[in-house]
Design a protein that fits this description.
The protein has 208 residues and is α+β, with helices and mostly antiparallel strands. It is built from 4 helices and 6 strands; from the N terminus they run H-H-E-E-E-H-E-E-H-E. The chain is rod-shaped, with a radius of gyration of 54 Å.
């Protein structure tokens, strides 16, 4: 490179240009990348935690649905049991009323004569019909149930019939068997039939 002649005559010399410096590396760039990576990791952790919470909530909702279904079935069973108990109580009440026929009220055995002396009880006429007894096996409010049990008794060779009775405004169908002139024989037949047909509420009563 040639020097300026005027600057050379004036005794001035050309200064060398300053040396070039290497470009400076931005020291903040690695730090920024670290912050970005940390933020991404934190966001991923939050997303994973949120997914886990949502998954647990779905499982809890399903468990509650199953529990509600089980409770609904329990309530239905309790209502059915309550209805059966009400029917059983009604049946027992009817049975108690029917069994009252088994112990009829007896008239007084003695009467006062005009003279004040006790007269002997008049004997029943010989032509009077003897009291007959029957065995009551089933009493139900459904005619078809009574008919089905009567057919079963007939197949087994028993003389069975259905008598319709009304107690406290409720109609009952009573299945009864036999004509017994002796109460003890009716009682024996009651025990035998109750064992044969697994009946707990069979009873005897005067036959009308």
């Amino acid at each position: 490179m040639l020097a300026d002649p005027e600057r050379a005559l004036a005794g001035e010399t050309e200064e060398a240009p300053p040396p070039r410096q290497a470009p400076r590396v931005d020291e903040r760039r690695p730090v920024l990348w670290g912050v970005v990576i940390a933020a991404l990791l934190a966001m991923g952790a939050v997303v994973a935690l949120a997914w886990r919470v949502v998954h647990d909530m779905e499982k809890e909702v399903q468990r509650l649905h199953r529990k509600v279904g089980a409770l609904a079935r329990d309530v239905a069973e309790l209502r059915a049991s309550e209805a059966r108990l009400a029917r059983t109580l009604a049946t027992f009440s009817a049975m108690a009323a029917q069994r009252a026929d088994e112990h009829p009220t007896q008239p007084a055995a003695k009467a006062q004569s005009d003279s004040g002396q006790t007269a002997a009880l008049k004997p029943e006429p010989r032509h009077a019909a003897a009291r007959m007894w029957t065995v009551n096996l089933v009493s139900t409010r459904k005619r078809e149930e009574a008919e089905a049990f009567r057919r079963r008794l007939l197949r087994d060779g028993h003389e069975a019939e259905i008598r319709r009775v009304q107690l406290h405004g409720v109609v009952w169908y009573r299945v009864r068997v036999g004509r017994f002139a002796d109460r003890s024989k009716a009682r024996a037949a009651q025990r035998a039939l109750a064992r044969a047909y697994h009946l707990r509420d069979a009873w005897i009563s005067p036959r009308d």
